Amino acid sequence: MSPGKSGMFPAVHDRPVSGLRRSRAVLVTGAGGEMGHSLIAELSARPGTAVVAMDIRELDPAVRSQCENAFVGDVCDAQLLERLLAMYEVDEVFHLAALLSTRGEFAPETAHQVNVVGTMNLLKLSAEQARSHGRSVRFHFPSSIAVYGIPNLKTKQQAGAVREDQFLEPHTMYGVNKLAGEHLGRYYERHYRKLAKDRMDRPIDFRCIRFPGIISADTLPSGGTSDYGPEMIHAAAQGHAYSCFVRRDSCIPFMTMPDAVHAMLKLASAPKEQLTQCVYNVAGFAPTAEDFERLVMERFPKANVSFVADPGRQAIVDSWPENVNDAAARQDWGWNASHDLQQAFDDYLMPLITARYG
Ligand code: AKB
Predict the structure, then answer these.
(1) Which residue CA neighbors atom 6 of ligand 1 most closely?
(2) What one-character DSSP code corresponds to residue 273?
(3) What is the reported pTM?
(4) Atom of ligand 1 lying closest to residue 226 CA
């Protein structure tokens, strides 16, 4: 076993690959993250789906138990990716590994390495996988509302729900990286090695959703700028005081984690001929921070919520749209959120969060 680029020996819980034929698998990067927990639970429940997971840290045992195999390593480690892809015949990739918007502003070049170089590593190796097994690799890329860069609050209020082709001048490195990832994916699908005589047509089937802020009852986000929504709810449920880092009138779109995973899997299974674009908006609900406070106080009357805006993080949230227009997703692949704001609290968050914290 050769050490990966990091010089570390990735922890690999090898299970023998049967004979010379590689086992077919679905690869999930960033498997230990918020979305990875929920996505792997859904994928592993599908008959005949073998999930191979990859994350920078060891997986939670509960997640690990749902995987065929798990690799600890960095998506920038091309050697590790090559080793993994030599062991499995990968038909589908869910590339969740990323450095989010707030963390990315403290280390923008690192964010670029993880979010763009890591993505390109994986696209390149997936295209090589496609050549080797003769089928295109379905590549799922979670993008973000961070790709939008609205210049000021007046324009934000006038813009309302923005379409996929509007305001694409992101104010964060994370947003720049996600926009680059979208263009890279479209290139690998439609133009990869355009002039090469031995090129394969469409080695990648690239499918991308621009996610809003996501709220999970099971996990807390870290390193994001939309984190104030879930942080406020989880703090109140634990009886902890919470100082919200944005103004009360701050408004961006959110959705629940079940709806986010539902959207990703619904796009994943849509017939390609129905898809008129590679990148789609999806919307859930668009509360202000004050809406979150009101709903939290209704359910946790003793909650202690205060507002102390962090100018930098506030500027990021102000550059993101109030909401997104998801007409294309509804039209092309039948997207429809199952939780509006009230249902998110009543049907999803409250039952699970109160059970979790007692
Ligand atoms: C972040 O806050 O950076 C992410 C996002 C909106 O993509 N949750």
Answers:
(1) 213
(2) G
(3) 0.94
(4) 2
Mutate to test the pocket of ligand 1, among 143, 208, 211, 323 (most ligand atoms within 8 A of CB): 211
Residues 146-187 have pLDDT tens digits of 999 999 999 999 999 999 999 999 999 999 999 999 999 999
CA 313/CA 256 separation, integer angstroms: 22
Query: The tokens of 38 are what?
Result: 């929920």
Report residues whose beta carbon is within 6 angstroms of any ligand 1 atom.
Answer: 100-101, 144-146, 174, 211, 213, 221, 224-226
Residues near 345 by beta carbon (within 8 Å), at least 6 away in sequence: 295, 299
Question: Which among 30, 5, 4 has a CA at the least distance from the CA of 223?
Answer: 30
Q: What does pLDDT average to over the chain? A: 94
Q: Are 59 and 32 in contact (CB under 8 A)?
A: yes
Residue 301 is classified by DSSP as T
Q: Which of 230, 232, 235 is nearest to 219 (CA)?
A: 230
Query: How far apart are alpha carbons 326 and 329 in whole angstroms?
Result: 5
For the chain, what percentages of helix, strand and coil (3-state, to nearest 5) are there?
40, 20, 40
**Short-list 284, 224, 225, CA closest to 257:** 284
In the predicted structure, residue 3 carries a pLDDT above the cut 80: no
Closest CA to 208 of 298, 118, 95: 95
Atom of ligand 1 nearest to the CA of 101: 3
Residue 175 three-state SS = helix
Which amino acid does the sequence have at 7? G
CA distance 101 to 313: 9
Cα of 331 from ligand 1 centre, angstroms: 25
Query: For the packed helices 350-357 and 228-237, what is the interaxial angle rounded to 10 degrees?
Result: 50
CA pair distance 352, 197, nearest whole angstrom: 55
Q: Which two tokens stand for residue 21?
A: 């034929």
Q: How far is CA 30 from CA 37, 55, 118, 128, 154, in A?
A: 9, 5, 11, 21, 36
